[in-house]
Structure formats: structure tokens, C-alpha cells
Write a structure and sequence with these properties.
single chain, about 240 residues, alpha+beta, Glutaredoxin, 8-stranded mixed β-sheet, 8 helices, about 20% strand
């Protein structure tokens, strides 16, 4: 079997595993939604009362969200999205962006986080969905082609987007948003690198928040849940009304 055929087989196995994981997660999340009255948060938000930035920071701190006193400028960094289109900072203007650094071969954190975001997303009003963007920034530019990203993201939500590109873009963007990542080679029983087993990517688990100007507004620490994410998103966006 050629290297290309092995990679294709690995890819299919990964996607099959992903579907199984998502199914299990969705069952658990659906139960959580039914038991916690998740939809009420979408309708009510934080009583729909605009909050100052300092008030918002205090309200969301216990939810794991850290809101900066003022946004930090982010320079324009070129990427390619899941549709193969060149994009930059200007393409994110006008929406609140919730960005997660990860990769499609991730065995646990990435599919879990995206599944949670999908369940929060479907409970947003159409108006709020229109001003919200959820994006995966790939830290695995070797394997995460636009085609691979599109297939992966469509398992969660077709409105979500994903970015890939070159190493310089990734390094610059990750540094500006305090994200870290590292390639981890798999080894055999003797401790030697085993190319047949592929590799993993260690990466930050935080969700980064960008304001509608594309600048660094704050971040959200795990663990995540649909109820928590819905409260954070609605509170932040309602505070700007």
C-alpha cells in the first residue's frame, strides 16, 4: 500500500471515528439541553440589559470568560478558508468571532469543542447568528487542506468556517492570540519515531474572542458546555446594543 493510500485510509478512519464521537456527544448534549432549559438563555440572554465592559468581565468570569479592559490590535494575517479562498482580517469585520486552534485529526478536544459550539449556535436567534462567526484555525497545515477542513466542519455546522495556510501565518496569528501548539511524533515500543503511526498536535484549548473590528477581545477557558457558551455569546453581543 502506498503512502498516499495509507493516508487516505487513515483519513476515512478518522472521519468515521469522528462521526461516532459526535453521535455520542450529541446524545449527551441533547439531554443536557432538555434538563437545563438552554433555549431560555437564547431568548433572555442576560436579561437583555447592556453591560459595561467591566460589568461584563465580572459577570462572565465565573463562566471561564476573560474580557480585556480594551481590545488588543491584531495585524492582518493571510489564510485560506475551507472553500479554498484567500482571506484576511477584513473578511472578519462586522462579526463577533469565536476562534479555536485545533486540527481535523484531533482525537478528542477539537470534536468535543466544535460539537458544543454547534449546540450553542442552533439556539442563537437568526439575528445573533448573523453577527457571530465560529472558526477553527488549523495547527496542522501539512494535512489540513481546504477540502479536508470543509468535510470536517460540515459534520458540525455548515455556517462554521476554518482557516489553514502557511507556517508564517500560523505562527504570527497564534502568537498574537496567545495560542501555543507543537507537533508530537508517535513512537514505537523502543521509543523510536514510528512514521507509520503518524503524529499528533498538542495545542491550546481556549476559545479566542475577536470583536467586530477583528481585534483580540478576550478568551474562554475550558471546560465548555452549550449552556455556558450560549450565555457568554449572548451576554457579550447584547452588551453592545
Amino acid at each position: 500500500m502506498s503512502v498516499t493510500e495509507k493516508e487516505s485510509l487513515m483519513n476515512k478512519k478518522t472521519l468515521a471515528l469522528l462521526i461516532a464521537i459526535i453521535t455520542i456527544i450529541f446524545v449527551g448534549i441533547s439531554t443536557l439541553m432538555n434538563n437545563s432549559g438552554l433555549s431560555n438563555i437564547s431568548e433572555n440572554g442576560s436579561d437583555n440589559q447592556p453591560l459595561s465592559r467591566s460589568q461584563l468581565s465580572k459577570e462572565l468570569y465565573d463562566e471561564g470568560a476573560h474580557i480585556f479592559p480594551q481590545s488588543i490590535d491584531v495585524t492582518d494575517v493571510p489564510f485560506i478558508n475551507e472553500e479554498g479562498q484567500a482571506i484576511g482580517k477584513g473578511d472578519n469585520i462586522g462579526k463577533w468571532s469565536f476562534i479555536f486552534f485545533g486540527y481535523t485529526f484531533c482525537p478528542d478536544i477539537c470534536p468535543t469543542t466544535l460539537a458544543v459550539m454547534q449546540q450553542a449556535w442552533v439556539n442563537l436567534s437568526p439575528e445573533m447568528q448573523a453577527q457571530t462567526q465560529v472558526a477553527l484555525v488549523s495547527v496542522d497545515i501539512e494535512r489540513d487542506t481546504p477540502e479536508q477542513l470543509q468535510t470536517y466542519m460540515n459534520y458540525f455546522e455548515k455556517e462554521f468556517t476554518a482557516f489553514t495556510g502557511n507556517l508564517n501565518s500560523l505562527r504570527s496569528y497564534a502568537a498574537q492570540l496567545n495560542a501555543v501548539y507543537a507537533k508530537v511524533e508517535r513512537t514505537d515500543e523502543n521509543g523510536d519515531v514510528d512514521p507509520e503511526r503518524g503524529y499528533l498536535m498538542d495545542h491550546s484549548a481556549n476559545i479566542t474572542i475577536l470583536d467586530p473590528n477583528g481585534n483580540y477581545y478576550g478568551f474562554i477557558k475550558p471546560p465548555f458546555s452549550p449552556k455556558k457558551m450560549l450565555k457568554i455569546i449572548t451576554s457579550i453581543e447584547n452588551s453592545q446594543n
